[in-house]
Amino acid sequence: MLTAVTPDSENPLFKLSSQEQSPPRMTIFCDLDGPIVDVSDRYYTTYQQGLADTQAAYEAQGINLNLQILSKQQFWQMKQNRVPDTEIAKSSGLSGAEIHVFLGCVSRIVNQPDLLHLDRIQPGVQWAIALLHSRGARLILVTLRPQNQATQLLQNYGLARLFTCICGTQIPDAAYHNYTALKTELLTEVVEEFDSSLGSAWMIGDTEADILAGQALGIPTIAVTCGIRSHYQLQKYQPNFILSDLIIAVHHLLGYAQKVRLD
Ligand SMILES: [Mg+2]
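Above are the sequence and the magnesium ion SMILES. Below is the predicted complex in structure-token form.
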């Protein structure tokens, strides 16, 4: 699903840097969770609530579970290393049917509106996106989050206006499950839409789904390590570059564009 957004030429950074010479036009396809938003607090709270709900369900049957709750750091390291939720559940003291109860709780909880406020914008993202926009790059958001949720979040941070298009899904927990096929489908849809005017195109994301979707369409990829995958996991998929965050990625892209122009 695509939403066109009116570009904002009134952004102050646009005016500040618009006098500089523009590099060739670029199209940046950017993922939301990871490069732009830090979801680690929401995912960890979901994990904690999932365990609490599982415990309550068993207590109602007179069964006491012996839980070992992971720290935020332990939990996030496991997510960054693609440890499946079933293994995370086992490490937390669950077994057998308890794991299925826990997984059901997690899917139900993760997108509840009262947890969405736990999402935080990554440091420096507003500056990085405004800079890209000011240099004439076209920004297209490609996220597995529900379309309206992504649009609302970007609006909250004053960023929606800087995106030409916001492409999301209708599936509430697609982002949590990080379906590669769905990401590729979304990227295909939006690439077809802008095919004639892509210029130099890049895909920025924090997981294998972003890298594989970009590669499927022949678009070079930048993986960032500030999200839900470690450098070690990302390098298995051979993105063109692995960088720490969106600010470094933007500097890299603008430097790259400058170099191409001078060659
Ligand atoms: Mg992501």
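Residues 31, 33-34, 205-207, 227 surround magnesium ion (CB under 6 Å).
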